[in-house]
Design brief:
The protein contains 12 helices and 19 strands. By secondary structure, it is an alpha+beta fold.
Length: 368
């Protein structure tokens, strides 16, 4: 073989090796997934430094406690149709006005005044479990699911039919709301079940439950309340008690509502609503990034590249292509190994995996 051919062969081999190296970095699987059975196996697989083992164990406690796969609220959310406020009102236009007119429920207490005959007026008239009241000269009458205006008209009509008063002026008020309930859960001072009154909205529900948890309790800092989620939600029962009963999720702009930017989010509450005020979702980063720590979601979707950028980016000794994401799903621990150079330097940003709440990102140190 002459020198010229030998040089050409070496050059070809060199180019082939470079191509293989590039493929190894940029090609193949950008993300590989491993399931681990316990913490010891995870620590070994992650090649954690001693200083990070304690952080990892603390993270595990938090992640398991917040595992959405074990949450009743999460089950409801996952199994129900999800709508924005505008989409809900477009699909269920009755929700805009009809819910604002309170309909009397069993165990409510009414005040009934007949202006022409004060002897007929009654205070503290309790509605029975069957939805009835007893009224002088009329006897038992069904009032459940009627508005106070409809009850006024009904009493006027029945008094006229029995020829007691031909044109009575009747006023009916609910003095104690006991018949219809809604729940408030999440980041409020006193979560629980509350009576639904007339024309109550989301902000009324938050107020009834004692308001939001104090910022100190939630660790809030910054102009935006970093400890609260971007969105709140109402879990609403449609066609309650009927064969086609179902639950839907109405998502509203929680931050916009609290800051006064989005009053459309302050919709009327309905019977059996669950008003849920979530705390912010966080992800965690340890290892070779400039500012390790916990970070709240500033938008719904955050990629791993954006998450690392939020932490100031890699340090100069980071093993970028051994970046790992630990995720707990329904009690199963998964480790995703991500080749970050293949994502950021080789035009594969579309393959950048999305970070989920409670994910732990680990960036190991490079030894080369």
């Amino acid at each position: 073989m002459n020198l010229k051919n030998d040089f050409s062969l070496k050059r070809l081999v060199f180019i082939s090796l470079c191509c293989l190296a590039l493929y190894a970095c940029a090609g193949g699987n950008v993300v590989t997934v491993t399931e681990v059975s316990d913490s010891a196996q995870a620590i070994k697989a992650l090649e954690l430094k001693k200083a990070d083992v304690a952080k990892f164990e603390e993270y595990k406690k938090t992640a398991v406690a917040k595992d959405p796969g074990t949450s009743t609220i999460s089950d409801l959310i996952q199994n129900s149709a999800s709508l924005s406020v505008s989409d809900y009102l477009a699909k269920y236009p009755d929700g805009k006005d009809a819910i604002s007119d309170y309909r009397i429920g069993g165990y409510d207490v009414l005040s009934v005044i007949v202006y022409e005959e004060k002897d007929l007026s009654r205070e503290n008239v309790r509605v029975t479990a069957e939805g009835e009241i007893t009224f002088p000269l009329i006897g038992r009458m069904k009032v459940v699911d009627l508005t106070t205006t409809e009850v006024e008209r009904l009493i006027t009509k029945l008094l006229a039919e029995k020829q007691y008063l031909l044109d009575a002026h009747v006023s009916v008020m609910v003095v104690k709301y006991e018949g219809r309930k809604f729940s408030v859960l999440g980041a409020v001072a006193t979560p629980g079940l509350y009576p639904l009154q007339a024309r109550e909205r989301v902000l009324d529900g938050i107020s009834k439950s004692g308001g939001l948890m104090s910022s100190s309790m939630r660790g809030s800092t910054g102009a935006r309340d970093e400890s609260l989620a971007l969105e709140g939600m109402i879990i609403r029962t449609i066609n309650h008690g009927k064969p086609d009963e179902k639950k839907i999720i109405i998502n509203f702009d929680l931050q916009g509502l609290l800051k006064g930017r989005d009053q459309n989010a302050n919709i009327f509450l309905a019977e059996n609503d669950v008003l849920y005020i979530p705390t912010a979702d966080f992800f965690y980063i340890i290892g070779e990034v400039k500012t390790p720590g916990s970070y709240s979601f500033t938008k719904k979707e955050i990629t791993i590249a954006e998450a690392i950028s939020m932490a100031g980016g890699f340090t100069r000794i980071a093993s970028r292509n051994k970046t790992r994401v630990v995720r707990v799903e329904k009690g199963v621990e998964k480790i995703f190994e991500v080749k970050m150079d293949a994502i950021t330097q080789s035009g594969k940003m579309s393959q950048a995996m999305s970070i989920r709440p409670n994910d732990l990102i680990i960036v190991p140190e490079s030894f080369f």
